[in-house]
Design a protein that fits this description.
By secondary structure, the chain is α/β, with parallel strands linked by helices. It has 11 helices and 10 strands. The strands form 2 sheets. Strands 3-2-1-4-5 form a 5-stranded mixed sheet, with helices on both faces. A 5-stranded mixed sheet has the order 8-7-6-9-10. Helix 9 links the parallel strand 9 and strand 10. The longest helix is centred in the C-terminal third of the chain and has 30 residues. It starts with 9 loop residues before the first strand and ends with a helix. Bound molecules: 5'-O-[(R)-(carboxyoxy)(hydroxy)phosphoryl]adenosine (KG4) and zinc ion.
Length: 340
C-alpha cells in the first residue's frame, strides 16, 4: 500500500520524441480530460523509416493547432492548467526540442511549473491512466528502441532488472517485416498477418536465445535466423505464396511472445511479484496482450494500457509528470543542455 500524497494537479502534457506529435490534459495522473495526436506515419512511409529532420519540421507545423484543439476538447483554459510537462528524452533531438520548447514557453507565459519527463518512465506510467494500479509491480517495457523488465517498487523508485543486449523487440518486428516486404510500420502489419493470415506458428523453427542474466533479452539472433530461413525459402521464388508469408509471420510472433512471456514470469516469480504490467508500442500486439491476460488464470494481476496509451501518446507524459517528474538535467537527458 502506498502512502505517498500527491497534490492534485491538472497537467498539460506534450510528447514529441519521435514521429507522433501528441498533447493531453491529465488530472491527478489518472484521469484523461483530452488526449490527441497527429501521426506522421504517411509522411515517413515512402522512406520505410522515420526521417528525423522531416519529423521535427512536421512537429513544428502542427503543434500549435493541436494545442488549441486539446484545450477545447478538455474544456479548460490555459490559465487553469497547474503545470506543463514534456518529454525531454530519450528520442530524436530535433523532435524533442519542438515539444519541450513549446512546453517551456507555455510554462513561462502561465507562470506554472515545467515538469520534465523521461520517455520510458512515461510508458510505465501509461499503466496508471484510467486505472487504479499501484506499485509494486513488474513492468515489461517493449517499444521500438527498448525491451526492459522494470521492477516498479514505488511511484518514484524503479529498477531495471533485465534488458535487451542488442535489438529491441519492436526493432526486430520492424526489421523482419521489412525483409518480408510488408511495409512500414512493420510491427502492427506483421501482427495482423500473424493473427489473421491463417499461418501455422509451428511451421518455422526459430531459436530462443540464452542470456547470462536470465532476465536479459536478445533478439538479434532470432532476427538473423529468421532472415536466413526466409531468404533460403524465397530466394528462387518469383512470387511469394501467401501461406508461406503467413507461416513465417505466425512463427516469428509466437517465438517473440514466448520469449517475452517466459522471462517476465520467471522474473516475477524470483522477485515475489504477483502484479504484472506491459507498456510501450509492442504492448499493442494482439498475441502479447492475449498471452499476458491469460496469466490471470494463474493468479497474476495483469494490467495492460488501453490501445491508445500503448504507442507514443501525451496522456502517459501527464501521468509520469504527476507521479514521477524528473529534476531537470536528470540522467544527463535535458534536451536543452545537450544542444545549447
Ligand atoms: O513505444 P512506441 O510507440 O515508440 C517508441 O518509443 O519506440 O513503439 C513503437 C514500436 C515499433 O517498433 C512498432 O512496430 C511497435 O512498437 N508496434 C508493434 C505493434 N504496434 C506497434 N509491434 C508489434 N505488434 C503491434 N501490434
Ligand atoms: Zn515510446
Amino acid at each position: 500500500m502506498n502512502t505517498v500524497y500527491f497534490p492534485p494537479k491538472t497537467i498539460l502534457a506534450i510528447e514529441s520524441s519521435c514521429d507522433d506529435t501528441a498533447i493531453a490534459v491529465v488530472r491527478n495522473g489518472r484521469t484523461v480530460l483530452a488526449s490527441i495526436m497527429d501521426s506522421q506515419t504517411t509522411l515517413h512511409q515512402p522512406y520505410g523509416g522515420v526521417i528525423p529532420e522531416l519529423a521535427a519540421r512536421h512537429h513544428l507545423t502542427c503543434i500549435h493547432g493541436l494545442l488549441e484543439t486539446c484545450l477545447a476538447e478538455a474544456k479548460i483554459a490555459l490559465n487553469d492548467i497547474e503545470a506543463v510537462a514534456a518529454t525531454i528524452g530519450p528520442g530524436l533531438i530535433g523532435s524533442l526540442l519542438v515539444g519541450a520548447s513549446v512546453a517551456k514557453t507555455l510554462s513561462l507565459i502561465t507562470e506554472k511549473p515545467f515538469l520534465a519527463v523521461h520517455h520510458l518512465y512515461a510508458h510505465v506510467a501509461s499503466n496508471y491512466l484510467e486505472s487504479d494500479l499501484e506499485p509494486p509491480f513488474l513492468c515489461l517495457l517493449v517499444s521500438g528502441g527498448h525491451t526492459q523488465l522494470i521492477h516498479v517498487k514505488s511511484y518514484a523508485e524503479m529498477a531495471i532488472v533485465g534488458e535487451t543486449l542488442d535489438d529491441a523487440v519492436g526493432e526486430a518486428y520492424d526489421k523482419v517485416a521489412r525483409i518480408m516486404g510488408l511495409g512500414y510500420p512493420g510491427g502492427p502489419i506483421l501482427d495482423k498477418l500473424a493473427q489473421q493470415g491463417g499461418g501455422n506458428p509451428k511451421a518455422i523453427t526459430l531459436p530462443t536465445p540464452k542470456t547470462q542474466n536470465p532476465w536479459d533479452f536478445s533478439f538479434s539472433g532470432l532476427k538473423t535466423a529468421f532472415v536466413r530461413k526466409w531468404e533460403a525459402e524465397t530466394d528462387e521464388l518469383e512470387t511469394i505464396p501467401k501461406q508461406l508469408q503467413a507461416d513465417f509471420a505466425a512463427s516469428f510472433q509466437a517465438t517473440a511472445v514466448k520469449i517475452l512471456l517466459k522471462k517476465t514470469v520467471a522474473c516475477a516469480e524470483a522477485l515475489g511479484l504477483k502484479t504484472l504490467s506491459v507498456a510501450g508500442g509492442v504492448s499493442a500486439n494482439s498475441a502479447l496482450r492475449g498471452a499476458f491476460l491469460a496469466l490471470r488464470d494463474e493468479g497474476y494481476r495483469v494490467h495492460i494500457p488501453k490501445m491508445g496509451y500503448c504507442t507514443d501518446n501525451a496522456a502517459m507524459v501527464g501521468a509520469s509528470a504527476f507521479f514521477n517528474p524528473l529534476a531537470e538535467g536528470d540522467l544527463g537527458m535535458d534536451v536543452f543542455s545537450r544542444v545549447l
